[in-house]
Amino acid sequence: MTAATAEAPPRQGQRLTAVADLKQPGISEGDNAMIVVMQAGSQESHIDAVLERLGEHGLRGHLVRGEERTVIGVVGAAIPATLKEELEHFVGVKETVRITQPYKLVSRELRPQDTVVDVRGAKVGGGSLVVIAGPCSVESEEQIMASARAVREAGATMLRGGAFKPRSSPYTFRGMGEHGLQLLAQAREETGLPIVTEVMTPNDVDLVARYADVLQIGARNMQNYQLLEEVGRTGLPVLLKRGLSATIEEWLLSAEYVMAQGNPNVILCERGIRTFETATRNTMDLNAVAVAKRRTHLPVIADPSHGTGKWYLVPPLALASIASGADGIIIEVHPDPDRAKSDGGQSLNPENFAALMPRLAAVAAAVGRSA
Amino acid sequence: MTAATAEAPPRQGQRLTAVADLKQPGISEGDNAMIVVMQAGSQESHIDAVLERLGEHGLRGHLVRGEERTVIGVVGAAIPATLKEELEHFVGVKETVRITQPYKLVSRELRPQDTVVDVRGAKVGGGSLVVIAGPCSVESEEQIMASARAVREAGATMLRGGAFKPRSSPYTFRGMGEHGLQLLAQAREETGLPIVTEVMTPNDVDLVARYADVLQIGARNMQNYQLLEEVGRTGLPVLLKRGLSATIEEWLLSAEYVMAQGNPNVILCERGIRTFETATRNTMDLNAVAVAKRRTHLPVIADPSHGTGKWYLVPPLALASIASGADGIIIEVHPDPDRAKSDGGQSLNPENFAALMPRLAAVAAAVGRSA
Amino acid sequence: MTAATAEAPPRQGQRLTAVADLKQPGISEGDNAMIVVMQAGSQESHIDAVLERLGEHGLRGHLVRGEERTVIGVVGAAIPATLKEELEHFVGVKETVRITQPYKLVSRELRPQDTVVDVRGAKVGGGSLVVIAGPCSVESEEQIMASARAVREAGATMLRGGAFKPRSSPYTFRGMGEHGLQLLAQAREETGLPIVTEVMTPNDVDLVARYADVLQIGARNMQNYQLLEEVGRTGLPVLLKRGLSATIEEWLLSAEYVMAQGNPNVILCERGIRTFETATRNTMDLNAVAVAKRRTHLPVIADPSHGTGKWYLVPPLALASIASGADGIIIEVHPDPDRAKSDGGQSLNPENFAALMPRLAAVAAAVGRSA
Amino acid sequence: MTAATAEAPPRQGQRLTAVADLKQPGISEGDNAMIVVMQAGSQESHIDAVLERLGEHGLRGHLVRGEERTVIGVVGAAIPATLKEELEHFVGVKETVRITQPYKLVSRELRPQDTVVDVRGAKVGGGSLVVIAGPCSVESEEQIMASARAVREAGATMLRGGAFKPRSSPYTFRGMGEHGLQLLAQAREETGLPIVTEVMTPNDVDLVARYADVLQIGARNMQNYQLLEEVGRTGLPVLLKRGLSATIEEWLLSAEYVMAQGNPNVILCERGIRTFETATRNTMDLNAVAVAKRRTHLPVIADPSHGTGKWYLVPPLALASIASGADGIIIEVHPDPDRAKSDGGQSLNPENFAALMPRLAAVAAAVGRSA
C-alpha cells in the first residue's frame, strides 16, 4: 500500500496486513475532493451554474463527460465543509459526494506512527497491553480500597472508578462527587495505580482534573463539545468513549475536538453500540477497533463490561478485544458485585478478574504484543 | 427539477414538491458513473495501473488532478457492477464511489409516469386509495367469511388472509394450506373482493396463483430470488413487502427481479424495519414511502399492523401512511382478535376498523387523493 | 380499557382508539412489580437466598411453583431501581424482569389529562396545531428578519433559530452566540413570534433564558443531565428532542429529569432516529409519536427536517406527523437554502413552506384538531 | 451456577467463566412461565376474565397482590406460544411477559455437553479449531483448483465455494450451478478437503446434497423455513448463517427447524449484522458467539470476511473470533482477489491467508483449544 520505492504497480500480492505496513512516511495532510454528479440529460446552463458557484469559492471544477451524463470533479485543500450540501440541491444535480475525511489531526495519513500516551509512566499505545480495572462507582472508602488492592494484586495498570455517574433515571445513585475523588486519590496513594475517572460537565473539569490522571468522557457525552474542548485545554490524558450510536467517523471527529485544543493525549475506547439485538446490553463492535487502529495514530482500548452488560461475557470479549488489536481494556471489577450500587451485573469479582489476567497476557503474546 | 425550456439556471425558488413535478419527460436510462480517488501522494504508476484496468473493460478514465491528490472519473453505460470492488484495493487507491442506482426497470428516471396495477378492476397507484384488510391467517370458514363480510361492509378494496404462514418457531400454527386458499376463493365469490395471499416457496407458486389475485411476498422472503423470479413469471400482481432490514435500494432491486421477468405489476409495501426501539414490534419507516414514491413509478402501500405490532397504534399510523403519500394500506382485521391464532395483538376488530375507514378517507381527501 | 363502571369483563369490542379514551381518572401512581424466574431444577437454598435478599429491602416475595420451575413475584412501590440487576446474578436465578416504567411525573397513569404548555399565549398540546419554523442557524440580521417575516406571513406559531450550534466537526460554523440571541429578540419584537432556541451547556442557560421563550435541548444533549436539571430550574418551557438512538423510555426519563426540578412545561420532539437506512439522514419514527401520546400527558411535536434530511421529503412527513397525532411540527425554513451556513439541504424556502401550511391545516382538520 | 451438592446459597464467589462450568447435568427441559401484569386499580372482574381464559387452556394463574396492583403468574410446560399476545389486550391488563426460550432441541438446558459435528472425519465443535477457506464463488476449474491447493497447503480444514449465489441485483454473476458443484467435487478428490457450499432453494437440495459435505444456508435464507426443513431431512451437516438482522433467539429457532427434522448436525455461523455503521460492510457481533456458546450445545463458527467486508480487517477479526470462543472460522480466499467475480474486496490472497494460519493457531492455543 505504500512502497515508496516501488516502480511497477504493486497488486494484492504486496498487500500486508500489519498496521505497521500502513504507515506512509512523508505524506502530508493532502487535499480534499468532491464530486458533483449531474442528472442524465442535464443542461449546459445547469453545469454552468455549478461551475460558477465553485468559482465563488475559489475552486475549479473539472468536467468528465459521458454520452448522456456529466460529472464535475473538484480537488483542493480549501473545499468548505458545507459545499456538499450547498450544491446538492442545484437544479440538474443528481448527487454530490464528499470523498475525504473531515478530520485531520487524528488521522494516520497526517501522522503515521503510533501515539503513545504516557500516564504517570504507564504507556498506552505502541505495543503494550494496558488493563484499567475497578468498580463502576466509588461507593465507600472500604469498597474502593478493596477494589484497588485487588486489581493491583492481579496486575492491573490503572484504577477506574466513577465519582460522578450519568444515570438514565433521576431517581438512582449518581455518585459521591468530590469525596469520591478524594477516595480515588487515597487509593492511588496506597497502590501507586494511576486513576481514571469520568467528568460529566464543563464546570467540573477543573475539580476532576485536580485528582484524576486520566479524564474519562462517557458515551453519552461524546458529542458534548464544550466538555471536549474543556478537557482538551487541561492537557491531561483523555479517555474518549464512543457514543452509543456514533459512527467511527463521528468518534474520530470528537477526538479531533480535543486535539484541536493542543492536547495530543487522547485514548479512544470502544464500548459497544446500540443495535436491534436485546440479548446483550450493547453490541461490542470490534470491527471498529481494527478500523480505528488503521485510520488514526491514537491508542484504542475496549470496554467489554459495557460492551456486553453481562459479567459472564466479559472474559471472552476481553480476550477478543486484545486479539482484534486493541491496546488494552477497561473492565469493571467490584469486591461484591451482587451488592454494587450500579452495574453489578456486568462486574467481575476479584477472583474472576485474577483468573482472566494471565489469559489476557497469553492472547497478547500470541498476537505479538507485550503484556 | 427539469425545466426543459429554462435558460437561466433555476435555483430553489423553482423547486416543486409534488411527485408529478419530478417527472422528466424524454430522459433515457442514462449512464452510470464511478469515481476512483487516489491517495494523497500516490505514484504515477498507481494511476497507470487503474487506467490500464479500466481499459481492459473498454472504459476510459478521466484524470482530475489536484496539488497532491488525483481523482479518476469514469462515465458510461457499461460499467460492470463489480468494478467498484475490483478497483477498491489497488495500491494507491484510497476509495471508489459508485454513483448511480443499480436498478433500471423500476426507476422513475426510466418511466416518469405512475404505474397503475389493475386487480380485477381495482386500481392500485395513480391517485386512488386502496385498503386491503382481513385476518393474518385463514383459520376456518366461519372466521374468513365473517372477516370478508365485515371488511367489505366497512368499504375495504381487497381481502387479505394467509394460508401459508412463515413463523419463527417450528412449533406454532403455520396455516391451513390449500384448504385456506379454497376458503379465500369462497369469500371472494360471496363478497366480490379480490384476494391477497402470501406464497412462501417457489414450488407453491402455481398452486397459490390458481386462487390468488395478488401474490404476496413476505418480508422474510424479500431476497428469496428464485421465488421472486417465479412470481415474476406468473404475470400476476405481486405485493412485495420490504425486508426487516432491507435498505430502500435493496427493496427496489428485489422489485427489479420481478420486473426483469416481464411482470410490471409490482406493488411495494413498507411494513416496518428493525431498529433498536423495543416499545413497538417494528419501526414504521414512512420516510421510505416518500423516497420510494420519488425513485420509482411503482405503487407503494403501507402495513401499519406489522409496522407497529399493537392494535391501538394502527389507526394513527394508518392515517400517517396515507398522509405521507402511500397509495393505500394493508391492515389486519379479525372478528375476534383475542382468539386469533396469530397476530391477534395487532389486529383491529371490525368495529374499530369500521371507525377508521372514514378517517382514512378524510385524510386522503386532505392530501388530494380520492378515497 | 378503562370502563370504571363495567361489571362484565369487557373484551376487544370495548376497545376505543382515541387517546381521550385511554385516560383513567382516579388512578394513583401505582406499584412497581418485579419477577424473578428461577432455573428449572434450582434448589430451595437458592430460592431462600433470593427471599432473604428481598427481606433486606423490606420486600416480600411470593412464590409461584410449577412442576420444575419456580417464579418469585414482588409487588410494591418501594422496589429499588437496581434490584433487577442485583438479583439477576444470584445462583439459580434464570432471569429477572422489571415490569413497570421507571418514570412517574411524566406518566399518563399519574396525570390522565393532557398538559398544555403556554408559550406567550400560544398553546402547545390539548388539540391545537403548532408550527415552529425558521432557519437552522441565525446567520445575520437580514437573514433572521427575512425568515421571521416569511414564516409569520405563512402562519407559523413560533420562530426557531440557533445561536449556539452543535457540530460534529470543530472546523464548521458554530453559531453567532449572544449576538444571535439579540437578533432573535429583535425578530420577536417585530413579528410577535415567540422564539425557540437551543442551549448546549449548563453555563449558557442563564444567558439563553434571558432571550428565549422556549429552551431547546438538542438530540445530542438528551442525556446531558446537568443541562436538563439547569433548564428544569428556569421554569421556562423546554423543547426536548429525542436522542439519535434513545428509546422512548429513555426520552421520557430525560423529561422526568426536567420535571423533577418542578418544571412541568416540557414539549417532547421526535426528530428521527439512527437506523441502517442511508437513503435518508435519519428515520422518522412516527410510531414514537403515537406511543408517547399514549404514555405521557406531555405534548409531542415532530421535526421532519432532521427526521428526513432532504427538503423534498419534509412536506409528506410533516403531513404524516400531524396525522399520527403530533401536536405540531418544527421545521427548517431559510430565505435562501442554497446559501445556508448549515442544513440548507433540508430547509424549505418560503414559497414551499407557504404552500405546505394549508395542507397541514387540512390534515389537522381531517384528524379532528384545530389548525 | 449449578452446584448440585451445594447447600448454602452460593454467590458470585462461585461463579465460573469457562463454558464447561455452565453445564448443568440432570436438568430436564423445564417449564415455561408467563406473567400477566394488571394495571394499577384494575377490577376484580378483569382479573377473573384472565383467570377464566387461562382455565380454558388448562392453566392455573397464581395471584400476587400488591397494594394497588396485581400480578398473575403462570408456570407450566403447556403454555401455548400465542398466549402472550392473546392476553396482552384484555381490559385491565398492562403487560404480559413470556419468560422462557421458545426453542428446545438446540438448548444447552436440554443437552449440556457440546455437540461435535463430524464432517468426513473433521470435527466441528468440542475444542478443536476449524478453518473453512476458499473463494466466494466457483469461477472456473483453474480458479477452484488453485484455491483448493492453496488453502490445503496453508492448513485449512475444509474448502468453501459457491455454485449458486444470492445477489441483490439480477444483473450480476449468480454462480456456475451444477458445473460448479462438479468442480468442487473434483477439488475434493484431489485435495481431500470436505466441501461446504450454499443451497438456496428447496428444489436444489437434492442436487447440492449429492456433492456437498456441508450444506450452507445463507444469511438471506435464515428464515426460509421450507429450505430449513428440506436440509434438515437430508441428515447432512448444515452450516446455518445468522440473518443480517436476526436476533440470537431467531437464529436458534431456525436451527430448531433443522433439528426438528431429526438432523442434529447444525453448525451456527455468525457473519455480521446490519447496524448504522457504514465504515464496514456489517458489524461483526462477537457477543453473539459467546452468547450462543452459552445457550446452545451446537458448534459456533464466525465469518470475518462477510463480517467486515474488507480484506485488511479479516485477520484481526478472525483472531478475535477465536478468542471469543468460536469453534472455527470460515474465510474467503481467492488466488487473485482483484479479479474475483464477487467479494474480491473481502477476500484474502493465498499469501495473506498462509500468514494468518499460524497466528490463528497461536491464539487458539492461548485460549486453550487445539489448532
What would you note in describing this structure?
- Four copies of one chain form a homotetramer.
- Residues 1-30 of chain A have low confidence and may be disordered.
- With 371 residues, the first copy, chain A, is α/β, with parallel strands linked by helices.
- Chain A has helices at residues 44-56, 83-88, 141-154, 178-191, 205-211, 225-234, 248-259, 286-295, 304-308, 314-323, 350-366; strands at 32-38, 62-65, 70-76, 93-98, 117-119, 122-124, 130-134, 158-160, 195-198, 214-217, 238-241, 266-270, 300-302, 328-332.
- Chain A contains eleven helices and 14 strands.
- In chain A, helix 3 packs parallel to helix 4, helix 3 (141-154) runs parallel beside helix 11 and helix 10 (314-323) runs parallel beside helix 11.
- At the A-B interface, strand 1, helix 1, strand 2, strand 3 and strand 4 of A face strand 1, helix 1, strand 2, strand 3 and strand 4 of B.
Short summary of the structure?
In chain A, 32% of the residues lie in helices and 17% in strands. Chain A contains eleven helices and 14 strands. Chain A has helices at 44-56, 83-88, 141-154, 178-191, 205-211, 225-234, 248-259, 286-295, 304-308, 314-323, 350-366, and strands at residues 32-38, 62-65, 70-76, 93-98, 117-119, 122-124, 130-134, 158-160, 195-198, 214-217, 238-241, 266-270, 300-302, 328-332.
List the helices and strands and how they pair.
The structure is a homotetramer of 371-residue chains.
Chain A: E1 32-38, H1 44-56, E2 62-65, E3 70-76, H2 83-88, E4 93-98, E5 117-119, E6 122-124, E7 130-134, H3 141-154, E8 158-160, H4 178-191, E9 195-198, H5 205-211, E10 214-217, H6 225-234, E11 238-241, H7 248-259, E12 266-270, H8 286-295, E13 300-302, H9 304-308, H10 314-323, E14 328-332, H11 350-366
